[in-house]
């Protein structure tokens, strides 16, 4: 049986913080979009515009996307901590390090799966915007 090599955890070490940075950037982009949509929604509601209801749908999607990003960051952070412990325990020579590394890989996989789901949801939200533009173009 092949033994666990500490180099394995070193491969994952730089990937996790980079993905966490990516997830953080998504969080910032979504939060800016929510603030802008909030402002636009209040303006449309003041004018009693028909498009105000579409804003509510988009806000629900953004709320769900925020939840996904939160879980992506949580799983990535936990994977990073476990990866650090893997390296520490691997240096000591503990057999537990390979199990911690396996758990770190599983948690990081969860984060990536949620990332794929969130990207899909983001694409659906953008498609909603395009459909709205197409409807306005047809009505003109």
What is the gist of this entry?
With 140 residues, the chain is an all-alpha fold. 89% of the residues lie in helices and 0% in strands. It has helices spanning 6-12, 15-46, 52-92, 96-139.
Please specify the SSE layout and strand pairing:
Elements: H1 6-12, H2 15-46, H3 52-92, H4 96-139
Helix pairs in contact: 1-3, 2-3, 3-4
Please explain how this structure is put together.
The chain has 140 residues and is mainly alpha-helical. Helix content is 89%, strand content 0%. The longest helix is centred in the C-terminal third of the chain and has 44 residues, at 96-139. The mean pLDDT is 80.
Describe this protein with a few key phrases.
140 residues; mainly alpha; 89% helix
Helix/strand-derived category reads: mainly alpha
Tally the beta strands. 0
Indicate the percent of residues in helices: over 70%
Low-confidence stretches: none
Instruction: Report, as a whole number of angstroms, the end-to-end distance.
Output: 70 Å
Beta-strand fraction estimate: under 5%
Distinct helical segment count: 4
Q: Report the mean per-residue pLDDT as an integer.
A: 80
Global geometry: elongated
Write the element-wise H/E pattern from the N-terminal end onward: HHHH
Reported for the largest beta sheet, the result is: none
How big is the Rg? 21 Å
């Amino acid at each position: 049986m092949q033994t666990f090599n500490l180099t394995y955890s070193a491969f994952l070490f730089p990937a996790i913080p980079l993905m966490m940075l990516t997830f953080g950037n998504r969080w910032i982009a979504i939060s800016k979009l929510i603030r802008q949509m909030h402002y636009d929604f209040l303006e449309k509601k003041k004018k009693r515009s028909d498009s105000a209801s579409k804003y509510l749908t988009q806000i629900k999607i953004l709320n769900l996307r925020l939840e996904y990003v939160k879980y992506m960051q949580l799983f990535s952070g936990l994977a990073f901590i476990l990866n650090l412990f893997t390296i520490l325990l691997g240096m000591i020579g503990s057999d537990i390090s390979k199990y911690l590394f396996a758990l770190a890989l599983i948690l990081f996989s969860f984060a990536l799966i949620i990332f794929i789901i969130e990207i899909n949801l983001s694409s659906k939200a953008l498609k909603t915007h395009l459909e709205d533009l197409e409807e306005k173009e047809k009505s003109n």
